Amino acid sequence: MSTAAFAVVAAAVALASCMQASIGFGMGMLAAPVVALIDPTLLPGTLIMSASVVTLLVLLRERESLDLRGTGWALVGRVPGTIAGALLLVWLPESGLSLLLALVVIGGVVLTGFGWNPAPVRRNLVTAGAASGLLGTATSIGGPPMALVFSGEENAAVRSNLSAFFLVGSMFSLAVLAVTGHVNVHTAVVSAWLVPAIVAGFLLSRWVNRLLDRGRLRTVSIAVSAVGAALLVGQQVWLAS
């Protein structure tokens, strides 16, 4: 990878880290399309590693608002979802998988726009955790299902609960991806070089968080979910052209 290409990836990761630290998710949505165009071999491993760093930083910052019970039920669903995502990577063409998952996200956004607001109860948390595990492992974009379930909570609770879920879930995803050969030395080295960009994005989020009340956080979360799905579709169209 050239210096210019790495600079573009680092800038995308810094902005994505800021988004992740502000609304609780978004690393894969913002950075994945950019990384896919420059070096597709980095997906999803490098972005999952990068997301793990920023979620750890957010969790330490927002630890007082953490609800381990809700996060625990979501992780119950994450396990089978992660395994399913890894199997889909092996069995299905990447383009078809990405388009299918993007349509699922868009469907959830549309339902939310019509007033659907799933409460963070056990059934919804397990279901969202499974969907997030599948999406995150297969495409590195696993935020929307969990964000929709937690969107009605206080901002700090949203960020802390999502961060705890994604930190543990990412470790499991990386282990499964390593077994299937989708994590290697190249992805790990690039991830290490991106740490300064991740920290810069995290520090920038402190300023962004001051502008977000609960209503704005929910609106931004839904909008980012829609944009992320659209970018995923656009990425596949670009690669196919």
From TrEMBL:
<keyword id="KW-0472">Membrane</keyword>
<feature type="transmembrane region" description="Helical">
    <location>
        <begin position="164"/>
        <end position="183"/>
    </location>
</feature>
<protein>
    <recommendedName>
        <fullName>Probable membrane transporter protein</fullName>
    </recommendedName>
</protein>
<keyword id="KW-0812">Transmembrane</keyword>
<keyword id="KW-1003">Cell membrane</keyword>
<feature type="transmembrane region" description="Helical">
    <location>
        <begin position="72"/>
        <end position="91"/>
    </location>
</feature>
<feature type="transmembrane region" description="Helical">
    <location>
        <begin position="30"/>
        <end position="60"/>
    </location>
</feature>
<dbReference type="InterPro" id="IPR002781">
    <property type="entry name" value="TM_pro_TauE-like"/>
</dbReference>
<comment type="similarity">
    <text>Belongs to the 4-toluene sulfonate uptake permease (TSUP) (TC 2.A.102) family.</text>
</comment>
<feature type="transmembrane region" description="Helical">
    <location>
        <begin position="220"/>
        <end position="239"/>
    </location>
</feature>
<dbReference type="Pfam" id="PF01925">
    <property type="entry name" value="TauE"/>
</dbReference>
<keyword id="KW-1133">Transmembrane helix</keyword>
<feature type="transmembrane region" description="Helical">
    <location>
        <begin position="189"/>
        <end position="208"/>
    </location>
</feature>
<dbReference type="InterPro" id="IPR052017">
    <property type="entry name" value="TSUP"/>
</dbReference>
<feature type="transmembrane region" description="Helical">
    <location>
        <begin position="97"/>
        <end position="116"/>
    </location>
</feature>
<keyword id="KW-0813">Transport</keyword>
